[in-house]
Design brief:
The complex is a heterodimer.
Chain A: E1 4-5, E2 11-14, E3 19-25, E4 32-38, E5 45-50, E6 54-58, E7 61-66, E8 71-76, E9 85-92, E10 101-102, E11 106-111
Parallel strand pairs in A: 2-11
Antiparallel strand pairs in A: 1-3, 3-8, 4-5, 4-9, 6-7, 7-8, 9-10, 9-11
Chain B: E1 5-7, E2 10-13, E3 19-24, E4 31-37, E5 44-50, E6 53-57, E7 65-68, E8 75-79, E9 88-95, E10 105-106, E11 110-114
Classes of the chains: A mainly beta, B mainly beta.
Chain lengths: 112, 115
């Protein structure tokens, strides 16, 4: 059973601080990694994708991937109250296996 | 900005009834997906669809489920005889054919309530 694991939280971070979200995955052949944000009662919204080892930055968001450790993380700098949501890690194997396998999500609360 | 559109936003049905959930994927996308999320649980893959046929389906997607692309724009999920445990949010997603690195864009979802 291919799994994606996340700490369910809740994770509370003061406004302006860095929020760090972590995810591990079990399938070594995984090729594509995504972070989605989901507000309560809403659909997943893509915020970051990463495919190669290392860091990828987009505005206040940085995704980090370490395939050897089967670990992907998301850093949110200068956290804002509007960042309060559940963050979903999703993994895809590519090469004919198109489905996304999601973790249970980490609930993040930014404290003003 | 192009988006995936789902209707209805909320569907209430009686156990045993058939329901059809509708999706209009982004217009230049050729891969389509259905996922579901039971309240408080993770998003689960149901089925993927490409070139007018199912390319992959999960164990959840049993004989009670079917998908169809009846015309050039709509993509539907049918549940033939709903059960209480089918109550969930159902999300449609789509992606481009090539170069998209499997970036899937999700619709707003249909909340299915089976009574």
């Amino acid at each position: 059973q291919k799994e994606v694991e996340q700490n369910s939280g809740p994770l509370s971070v003061p406004e302006g601080a860095i929020a760090s979200l972590n995810c591990t995955y079990s399938d070594r052949v995984s090729q594509s990694f995504f972070w989605y944000r989901q507000y309560s009662g809403k659909s997943p919204e893509l915020i970051m994708s990463i495919y190669s080892n290392g860091d990828k930055e987009d505005g206040r968001f940085t995704a980090q991937l370490n395939k050897a450790s089967q670990y992907v993380s998301l850093l949110i700098r200068d956290s804002q109250p509007s960042d309060s949501a559940t963050y979903l890690c999703a993994v895809n194997m590519n090469f004919g296996n198109e489905k996304l396998t999601f973790g249970t999500g980490t609930r993040l609360t930014i404290i003003p | 900005e192009p988006e995936v559109t789902q209707t209805p936003s909320h569907q209430v049905t009686q156990m045993g009834q058939e329901v059809i959930l509708r999706c209009v994927p982004i217009s230049n996308h050729l891969y389509f997906y259905w996922y579901r999320q039971i309240l408080g649980q993770k998003v689960e893959f149901l089925v993927s669809f490409y070139n007018n046929e199912i390319s992959e389906k999960s164990e959840i997607f049993d004989d009670q489920f079917s998908v169809e692309r009846p015309d050039g724009s709509n993509f539907t999920l049918k549940i033939r005889s709903t059960k209480l445990e089918d109550s969930a949010m159902y999300f449609c997603a789509s992606r481009e054919l090539a170069g998209g690195r499997n970036i899937q864009y999700f619709g707003a979802g249909t909340r299915l309530s089976v009574l």
